[in-house]
């Protein structure tokens, strides 16, 4: 991410046109992104029992399959997800692209490395520490973290700071619901997230050439974290998250550049002060803390005005204009009213 411009992306990374055309599917989705207050507060139907596989209503995505290491109880909970209110009408990326064109530096720097090596990460059992400015801190088994929450499918655009994008159907629940359960104190102002640090299973972490300082950390302001669009995902395409996409628990913040959407989370800490974040710390002039998608604020080494929507090929680059806040402006712009977005990039 740091060292490659979009123009440097090797043609070997670009799917041949014939392949993507044959896989291309269009989403016959409902009402587009519903932005009214009522829609923002709507949630999925009542919670099905854990392990009960109720697929009614959930979209079935061609090619999608459950990753082998996923816990059976989690498969059941994901299968029981209901369609959510937030769905773009744009074409969803084929599963093969969303799961093979990844950024997960813990497994290498090339787009294909995570799919090749992320199976080395053990995702069951998994626990998550909830720490800092909350009234009920502790370390909890993933099952206990997820059990009370109804899961829903949300179809979001994902815009990488490298100027490519995809549309992905996630399965998850609002981060807000989790944070409220653990009751933030009056002093909580930010939320810090930390990825697993396990060099023996994550070859990028033990590499002599590692560019990042691990563990990967990210952060949000508390009001951003509490925004109804901010999702904790455990699945995609109706299946448990593949390891390369951040199993078993990742963040999805659709109006921000993809690097904010931290993968394989083991700790969520509420803080008084703004937490340090991995890319911002490495190159503060290139990657801001806010990282809101903004076509008017260029990266120092390339423009952010347009993006390459995957699938894309040399002959059909599928380039389109980048939208302010990645198309979610109506919902999130009030979070930043009065702020200079060129300075707070
Ligand atoms: N989280 C961790 N722990 N490590 C990473 O390297 N890469 C980020 C983000 N989360 C990254 C991460 C970047 S740059 C992007 S664009 C998205 O994950 C990519 O998510 P995807 O591979 O599921 O499309």
Characterization of this structure:
With about 350 residues, this protein is an alpha+beta fold. It contains 11 helices and 13 strands. The chain has helices spanning about 15-25, 35-40, 70-80, 95-100, 115, 140-145, 175-180, 205, 220-225, 280, 330, and strands at about 80-85, 125-130, 140, 150-160, 165-175, 190-195, 215-220, 230-235, 240, 250, 265-270, 305-310, 320. Strands 1, 4, 5, 8, 9, 10, 12 and 13 form an 8-stranded mixed β-sheet that branches. A 5-stranded mixed β-sheet has the order 3-2-11-6-7. β8 and β9 (about 240) form a beta hairpin. The longest helix is centred in the first third of the chain and has 8 residues, at about 70-80. The radius of gyration is 19 Å and the shape is globular. Residues about 5-55 have low confidence and may be disordered. Bound molecules: ligand MTE.
Can you give me a brief rundown of this structure?
The chain is of the alpha+beta class.
Average predicted confidence as pLDDT: 87
Q: Report low-confidence residues grouped into runs of 5 or more.
A: 3-55
User: Structural class, please?
Assistant: alpha+beta
- Assess the beta-strand content as a share of residues: 15-25%
User: Could you give the distance between the termini?
Assistant: 17 Å
How much helical structure, as a percent, in the residues?
10-25%
Q: How would you characterize the largest beta sheet?
A: 8 strands, mixed
Estimated radius of gyration: 19 Å
